[in-house]
Amino acid sequence: MDEVAPIVIVGAGPAGLTAAYFLSKAGKKVCVVDQKSRAGRKFLVAGHNGLNLTNNLDLDAFLAKYPDEIIRKAVRQFSPQDFRDWFSDLGIATYVGTSGKVFPIPSLKPIEVLNRWMQILETQDVSFYFNSKCIQVTEQDIILEDKNTVQHLPYSHLIFATGGKSWKMTGSDGMWTRLFPSLNILPFQPSNAGFVLNHNQNYQKLEGLPLKNVVFYMGEMQLKGEVVFTSKGLEGAPIYALNQLVRKGTRALYIDLKPTMTAESIIGHLEKAKNPTTALKELKLGKAALLLLKSLPKETFVHATLLAQHMKRFPLEVSGLYPIDRAISTVGGISLLDLNEHFQHHALNRTFFIGEMVDWDAPTGGYLLQACFSMGFVAAQAILKTN
Ligand SMILES: Cc1cc2nc3c(=O)[nH]c(=O)nc-3n(C[C@H](O)[C@H](O)[C@H](O)COP(=O)(O)OP(=O)(O)OC[C@H]3O[C@@H](n4cnc5c(N)ncnc54)[C@H](O)[C@@H]3O)c2cc1C
């Protein structure tokens, strides 16, 4: 009797490994393929400054982070709490840190989290094909290229989880688009990326300095938060949240450097002081805010009204986003319109697309990984229901 072909998952990142767990747990034969020598390279990069797995925000507020209903629906089916319960069953305890971010307990390094997950997949008899790049897809099998050999791997169902197009050293090189010449694939663009500032504005002295307790204005958006100046421009959560506007062409960014005071009270304060430098010190602005104001032309700096206006609405010109390879995530790839609610492609038989290779967006704070886990769960459940 012919052996049943396995469910093949291409991409051993968090989305693919989640699907592999739920399918193999249900007794299905699962093969995971990855072009790198090990699993989860980007997952480990994400863990460099603390592995922020998900977020403890109330579920409605959590769901509001995703612009697309299909992603919200997936997260409802496999919620942040479901994820934490599952990881706890795997022996990976989590805790809630600042701003609701959920991390593995401090005694567990990201590599230990990944190793634990991989051990369990191995005990569930998942087969791994590393250093194996998927170079072609047919209706019965996928073709894998390993250094010198080419092999055919038949499948019963296919799950693609080959990632977006940033940090290509981790394997997420976006080259999978060549596998699907007949599909309409949306161009990749950076998301959750830093802002490059117009280099005619000389802010080198600011490199490495944080800008705290300020409010950012761009287009119709207004965001509070903390950022840091870099050699190219600005990085930080509020900047990432404004990426969508820069992608659409907005360039003007304004910062309220003293949101706790009105322009009128600042003018009153400046007019009373001996000179602007002393007045600014009394206002307890941070070093970066002071340097920004000191970069203004002298006639503005010594003019109380003009200086106050700049303090309330300091203009910066954004020339674009950081290069795509340095972005935390990317948008573009397979359109959600081409997938059903289980992430199965309308035009391809028995084929699912999950994780960052699909065109959806979310901010940092654990929302990217949670969507990848939820999409992996949902695709696995849909396949389990078919047989
Ligand atoms: C610096 C940084 C920090 C981050 N911090 C966070 C955070 O704190 N919280 C958060 O939620 N998210 C964070 N992320 C985002 C998160 O890591 C990604 O969203 C997530 O890894 C995407 O998972 P994925 O499974 O879709 O794809 P990936 O993790 O990108 O995995 C895709 C896999 O597919 C393989 N592959 C690609 N093409 C082929 C092919 N043709 N054949 C075989 N294999 C192939 C690749 O080798 C890779 O292993 C961060 C990302 C970065 C870069």
Please give a structural write-up.
With 387 residues, this protein is α+β, with helices and mostly antiparallel strands. It is built from 14 helices and 19 strands. The strands form five sheets. A six-stranded antiparallel β-barrel has the order 12-15-14-13-16-17. The relative contact order is 0.19. It binds flavin-adenine dinucleotide (FAD). Flavin-adenine dinucleotide (FAD) binds next to helix 1, helix 2, strand 7 and helix 14.
What's the short story on this structure?
The protein is of the alpha+beta class and 387 residues long. It folds into two domains: 7-190 and 328-386, FAD/NAD(P)-binding domain; 195-321, no CATH class. The strands form five sheets. Strands 12-15-14-13-16-17 form a six-stranded antiparallel β-barrel.
